[in-house]
Design brief:
The complex is a heterodimer. By secondary structure, chain A is mainly alpha-helical. Chain A has 2 domains: 2-288, no CATH class; 298-366, no CATH class. Helices cover 53% and strands 5% of the residues of chain A. In chain A, the strands form 2 sheets. Chain A has a 3-stranded mixed β-sheet with strand order 1-2-3. In chain A, helix 3 crosses helix 4 (46-57), helix 5 (62-69) crosses helix 6 and helix 10 (199-212) packs across helix 13 (245-262). The longest helix of chain A is centred in the N-terminal third of the chain and has 33 residues, at 78-110. Chain B starts with a helix and ends with a strand. In chain B, helix 2 packs across helix 4 and helix 3 (55-66) crosses helix 4 (72-84). The chains are: A mainly alpha, B alpha+beta. At the A-B interface, helix 1, helix 6, strand 3, helix 16 and helix 18 of A face strand 1, strand 2 and strand 5 of B.
Chain lengths: 370, 162
Amino acid sequence: MADSAAAAHRNPEFMNQRSPAPAAGRLVADALRGSWRLSSTALVTRADFETVTPLLYDSGAAGLGWWAIRDTPLADTPSGELLHQAFRLLTLQAVIHQTKIEKVFRHLRAARVEPILIKGWSIARRYPEPGLRPYGDIDLLVRHEDYSTASRVVENADLRDCRVDLHPGIFELVDRPIGDIFARSKLVSDSGQARVLCDEDHLALLAVHFLKHAGWRPLWLCDIALMLESMPDDFDWDVCLGCDKRRVNWIHSVVGLARELLGASINDDRVAARAKAPAWVSESVLSNWKHPFVDKHEPYNHRAPMRSYLARPEGVIADLRRRWPNPILATITVNGTFGKRRRVRYQLRNCLQRARRLVWPIDLAQDPTR
Amino acid sequence: MKPERSTKPRARKEGLVVQTLPDETLVYDLDRDLAHCLNQTATLIWNRCDGSSTTRQIARSVSDDLNHPVDEQFVWVALDQLSRNHLLTDGAPPPVSGMTRREVMRALAVSAAVAVPVVASIVAPMPAQAATGCLPNGSSCSTGIQCCGGFCNGGFCSSSPP
């Protein structure tokens, strides 16, 4: 059955199901609702499940898709079996990744560099099973002064098979001093004493990261839902939200989205009262979830760098149309806030900002999205 | 008479990634780039392949684990599959092909109350991961958020702040 399901997945007719029904984004949300929890409850019909399976499979949520239906009759369908196989593969991949993380930390510590593991494994470890949350790169936050040493270490031949991304700074947490982030970080014992962000910074990072990419990957909102439901009693929302009013608005919006679209519960009454995403934000996210594939979103949906059109302008109009910014992305890049009305002026400003960089590329000190 | 190496099978350890789940064991063969799934019965038998236990001893200890008598030929059925999937070290044990179809059926029927040992290959396209879809260093960019490194220096992605 696994073979036939896999073959069906490769079948062009099956792939054509990727041109989704209008409500496909909502179906993705329904299929993933509560999927990070221990208990499984399928909230989709069999027909809907068939429609949503390719969207889950190709967006990184295959493991969670399986987890959500594993104790239901949907588990015995070909699509259910396909998701089960994906879960098995992702489980094995997680074990392999974990050994790589241990190796990277060993090498960096030998060079007296103490990094913080962000995204990827640091959120995957919180799920009930390692195969539920796939990841590829090993993202490491390092102090600015350690960056060149760390860069040399990760070039080491022994680490060639580890895809390490070093970050001397990170846009998602640019509102808080890096020294504070390191001081609050913690060691976790489940991967050879890896260092991860404290829960407060971690949730802030995940929320801003979700918006920074216009929330196109459903799995990222599951991460936030999982964080919301697994946070310790002493979770400090003031640390998480920070002092920047705009970012407070951003985090509240994402927390509201996780509740609205995925049914996440919020343990703090004050935050629960404020956590609400404007309707246009959830519509935009659901619209993106109709095509939760990397090549459908910025920057991979661009045909060519704008600079190349200066020499050869053919196709520039079509590509310009593709570059009209997503409203969520535009709001973040111009440091705006999520209000009731969608801000076309943010989108225009984003376009101007990008056009200006095309003409005058060096304007980095003013760049809020660095 | 069966050769000694065959009657005392040894599970392969090198070049494998093994993950045990509640109902099954997942094995990834790093050398062959193949993934396998062992059901509970196959797992029990594989775990008993220590190179010093005979197939008869394995059958006895698996019987104890399952609380149900298991035939030695039942163990051979599992060993045959383990061997064909390169999960035993010292070559193939006397395969089930040495047994008649009737013997195989009898072996499995005798232990009808116990799940037949199954070693299945995991065949599925690799599912998507959850990478950001950001641009690698050196790619043309217009804002830092497009870049994996987080910085867009002079129109090109970089990991270094200006």
